[in-house]
């Protein structure tokens, strides 16, 4: 009898106590390795825990494809990614948008030598234009779209070449290429690297869609709401924690934007179409 009572009491206590919730796993698509992820987002991890009351765990992913697989298998709950990556993730995982991470002065441009032969968009016809990583929002898709907005067709009116930014800058100074597609911050670094050269911008695009935090489609509603509400209520505190990461300085002066929808990324879809990509079911590189 005593054993039966003890067993019944243990069962009652076990069912009365809530089960410990699994940690909410947070990944970033452009950071490889746990050590690098902790360096950039360790302070943010703690701040988000305090703001939500949830246990947050940083979860490294080796690639964007790995991030998609992790979302689909519920191995990760939240993924911070770029706008070009988001439109593919949307097709492959149907994630829920949590919040956009604004990057001030995040726009694409096309630069030339200020004292070189290229003085107008028309002068680029038949010339070589260098772009950065294939599929990069600000180094490939954005600059290509900026030229398209001015009437130059990708791969027809000029020859696109994919070259790393430093190599491309050297090629530009030698006259091997006519122009470079890059973003505002990258041009600043090129000017710093070549202080004896003058550069000019002949095409600028509109502000690019923001980086975006998404959640797996079947994330529990209470977890999703807690995270989204934390960004709305304690955005300043969370941003200060984000900015402790060196690479995260790109978000300086930015805000977390909760009024964001999938259609805000249609501009990115138009960029893909500009370079000849009509479907968004795979990462282009």
TrEMBL record:
One CC-aspect GO term: periplasmic space
A Pfam family (short name) is Phosphonate-bd
Tell me which positions the record assigns to the signal sequence. Answer: 1-21
Q: Tell me the SUPFAM superfamilies matching this sequence.
A: Periplasmic binding protein-like II
Provide the protein's localization.
Periplasm
What are the entry keywords? Signal
What family name appears in the similarity comment?
A: Belongs to the bacterial solute-binding protein SsuA/TauA family.
The name of this protein is: Phosphonate transport system substrate-binding protein
Species the sequence originates in: Mycoplana dimorpha
